[in-house]
Specification:
Structural class of chain A: alpha/beta
Strand content of chain A: 5-15%
Organism (chains A, B, C, D): Entomobacter blattae
Largest interface: C-D, 108 and 108 residues
Pathway (chains A, B, C, D): Carbohydrate degradation; pentose phosphate pathway
Number of strands of chain A: 8
Protein name (chains A, B, C, D): 6-phosphogluconate dehydrogenase, NAD(+)-dependent, decarboxylating
Distance between the termini of chain A: 67 Å
CATH superfamily of the largest domain in chain A: NAD(P)-binding Rossmann-like Domain
Radius of gyration of chain A: 24 Å
Strand order of the largest sheet of chain A: 3-2-1-4-5-6-7-8
CATH topology of the largest domain in chain A: Rossmann fold
EC number (chains A, B, C, D): 1.1.1.343
Keywords (chains A, B, C, D): Gluconate utilization, Oxidoreductase
CATH architecture of the largest domain in chain A: 3-Layer(aba) Sandwich
Oligomer: homotetramer
């Protein structure tokens, strides 16, 4: 199929490449002319564009524009601009990490003009070019069906992963190929958002576990209670046959091979929004999510020194017990 | 090799079978003569025994006895009895879920007589017979080396799982085959214990996420903010290419196929000790484990109705605000 | 001073009474004519009004209208209506539990017409009539100064509570009397909101503690490790000289006197918004608030039976271990 | 009455003084002769002793020895030694912060010789000399009754605190005076331990709240969403009439007067054991205590820099997303 990819960063660029490898014609655009040039030279059959107007002029109806930009204002501006350039029946896809409530507003606005909005949540990171991207998307059935060949090309496919038994015909066969039409506009990013909330929790579970293993050699313990354990080997052994095997564990095992002290990392951990939004959604639904909040708060605290809360604690201890902080 | 398997429940029975399939001669013993008879008929080359004394008499030195019993008193009693029956150079293996601090005492006691103690933490559950068991074990190097062929047979092996790149020669090659000599006695169960702590956290991460997805259709939300999402398809789509793919996710996907309301489950979730012990270990080491504790507490609360803490909350609300509980 | 009280429920009615006792003339209005009649008969010098228009006509400039309604739409509608009836220099006070971000919008709207908006967060519950109300408010200095006599009458005053030593002249002397001008519009409800977040955390701390004390007699413990403890006496003893003494503890002690099993409470605990908003604010600020979230989640869970998350946990346990739930 | 005070640190010294002011004769002993000399000169009617033997020789039967030492080995050794020096009917009181399970063992040992053991948990810190000590104690009824005059002198008494209404005759009148016989040996320290668990949770609730208030001026927020709030005034205003008023709040207000940035504190917060033990007890009882654990973990993290768990998180993020940590 023919489509445009707007935004050729690490994600958009690789997606354009993967699409061209699968025979799609991709019109390329990015704020950076260099990025366009680079992907244009790598993606067979791709076409360079110089502006959103140029992008639109190079497509044929129904025109499909995949926007792959960092979440936030720039995505909103781009979708709005596309709304002014496109016409009834055209399709705008937001493949970034937008807030699903923004999707609801954007879809509504575009619908006034008969333009379809599809929000695609994408997981797979830098590995997607080779492994394929796991995608959850929302939008009208009509739009979803129309862009199906694009999504199928981007997705990993069934591959060698063992199939779930007894999946009935009421279930969506696309799920087995790694992409899923979740529901109306906004639902794709919603599901991706929760995916990231789970990811935070899983990461924190491993992080806590490896910390307990590492600190089993801590000076705080009596000497005969200490074990000096090899974290790299432990991560490796769990990869085969254990209940905690996962792709995240594979990544841990890989990272630990080099130097299990992980000197290349400071441990200051950013968060990119989805974790927060998942907690917000959970609170709106009255659903307890203690693991997700604990995971987010660990990241907050990892990025600061001692905070005001901790000083307040020290102040109270001094107040009732005359406790002086340790030097 | 020749060894005895004491305890032929779901775990021990399957292990005896797997060992016999790999050509080992297994002396079988269980409190239940029926269990012995059943496994004896299935495990080629196995030998039935009628008592611990009989077990020991049927082995040749150095005698190897694998104890596979529920954690706790019965394991302790059996190990102690074996201590009285075995001699210098023999090996007692505890493959159950014993508390690692109990191992330290048991190993010390057996060492007085020159008997080796090996503690094996085993992950893999009911799938181990076919997939192999992931094992972490502690004990002397001498004992570990001697029983290596047994462990190799029980382990999954390298299989088709992609190998971690650049594993150096300072790392233990057995880890890639799914078994690992972690360190001295107790360290195997310690590592398995933390494994379970991680497992609790991962399970809770998925559980919270699927709950947020399910409740996105909650009556608490304004109607235009609700999505009716298909949890079975979402679990399935994440299995291919997403950051949250894992074996636990595979199991979720499988369970959800049948009826995504999960009517066959009440949601009262037991815990088997390791989660508690991991938290205890973390506290001894001054390591924060908020995700593990939240996971354990969710299980506690899942097994009761409204607890006293919640009544106290209601009592305070009534006290300061005259708040009457909703009917 | 002369002012109007709009909303004569448990809070507004008592405030009108307290103001009239302090010599203020209160114009009374409520949707319920009965409520107006009742308070009018109790509040000396008060004047009944029949509509917002009537309220406004009975005041003299600068007119002061205190709105004391449940948070949400009705407060917004009333403030908006008052905006159309009042003029430059008049003052609208929202004494309810409004969301502080709503205040920002309302204040801005009223400011276009030169009307002052003051948001008052009020703590003290049903006890305020006698003890006085602790109040935190936001708005212009001009408005805050003008309504000072009203707030001073509603506040508890210095009373017999020991004074904090060395409060310098840069601090606001009103704080010692139990009311405080926190900053611009919205800041009063913001501070009250955090107050409630703290309240949730403190309540949960007591609730957990009393639960641990009560369950020290649990069948789960070995018999020689159990204590049957008197929760009512323990709450009482802590009221004198302990680090955990507080007004909330006083309320616990009072509630426990009757029957320490608290049979009159089910333990299904509502939450009224401020706890959620505090967590939202904390997340916006990157501040970890694990205690506040745990407190809120306990309330969520107290209001449901076993939730979907817990069923997911059971489903996974069945998947990897064949674990059947206990009957 | 006549009794001995062993251990004349900040707590024991002040208790000896308070007892002498109430007319008791106190035999004084401490490892430090200077400490003995100092308290002897201040405590009217007190008697200096030079060893535990000397302590015992200076008392008359039934001899009462109050041990007021830091928890742990030294308390155990002292109680054991006293066990060898005392006789049937004598009373050993441990007023320190011992682990209640140690009490069980110590009481049992002393009981063999007919010596009573009383464990007293004490709250009140450096303020106890003037305000009196809140005490929870365990032991035989006989011993508890015998030492009642001592405890009554140490306790705050009813004072001016409003009395709880309708306390029935089945409740212990001593609770109103600030001391309580909780149950058998060990129960005093158990109740005090939970008291500290609650204290941790309350402290953390305030700490989080003040942090949210302080950071409302954070650069992370849009400028029109920031408030610069006065934490000292807010702490003060809550002291009068609010739901969160407490002694801990009084201490916060006092600490914040000086400099609300709290520059004298680093925010590295020790914990003294009781918080950990409360969590252990809760886990033994299957009681969820998320607030208490979150409070303890905040303290753990306050004492370290970025930990291994956080490095693991960064390593995973790098693995799946190529995310480089911020500089």
């Amino acid at each position: 199929m023919k489509l445009a990819m707007v935004g050729l960063g690490r994600m958009g660029g690789n997606m354009a490449l993967r699409l061209s490898r699968h025979g799609h014609e991709v019109v390329l655009f990015d704020q950076s002319a260099d990025a366009v040039k680079k992907i244009n030279s790598e993606a067979k059959g791709s076409v360079a564009a110089t502006s959103l107007e140029d992008v639109v002029s190079k497509l044929s109806s129904p025109k499909i524009v995949w926007v792959m930009l960092p979440a936030g204002k720039i995505t909103g501006d781009t979708v709005e601009k596309l709304g002014s350039l496109l016409n009834k029946g055209d399709i705008v896809i937001d493949g970034g990490n937008s807030y699903y409530k923004d999707d609801l507003a954007r879809a509504k606005k575009l619908a006034e003009k008969g333009i379809h909005f599809v929000d695609v949540g994408t997981s797979g990171g830098v590995w997607g070019l080779e492994r394929g991207y796991c995608m959850m998307y929302g939008g009208s059935k009509e739009a979803a069906d129309h862009i199906d060949p694009i999504l199928e090309s981007l997705a990993p496919g069934i591959g060698e992963i063992e199939r779930t038994k007894n999946r009935g015909s009421e279930l969506d066969p696309r799920a087995e190929k790694g992409y899923l039409h979740c529901g109306p506009a906004g639902s794709g990013h919603f599901v991706k958002m929760v995916h990231n909330g789970i990811e935070y929790g899983m990461m924190q579970a491993y992080a806590e576990g490896f910390d307990v293993i590492k600190e089993k050699n801590s000076q705080l313990l009596p000497e005969d209670q200490r074990f000096k354990l090899n974290v790299a080997d432990i991560a490796e052994v769990w990869r085969r046959g254990s209940v905690v095997s996962s792709w995240l564990l594979d990544l841990c095992a890989q990272a630990l091979v080099k130097d299990q002290e992980l000197p290349q990392f400071k441990g200051e951990v950013p968060d990119s929004g989805e974790g927060r939004w998942t907690i917000e959604a959970a609170i709106e639904e009255d659903v307890p999510v203690p693991v997700m909040t604990a995971s987010l708060f660990t990241r907050f605290r990892s990025r600061t020194g001692n905070n005001y809360a901790e000083k307040i604690l020290s102040a109270m201890r001094f107040g009732f017990g005359g406790h002086i902080e340790p030097k």
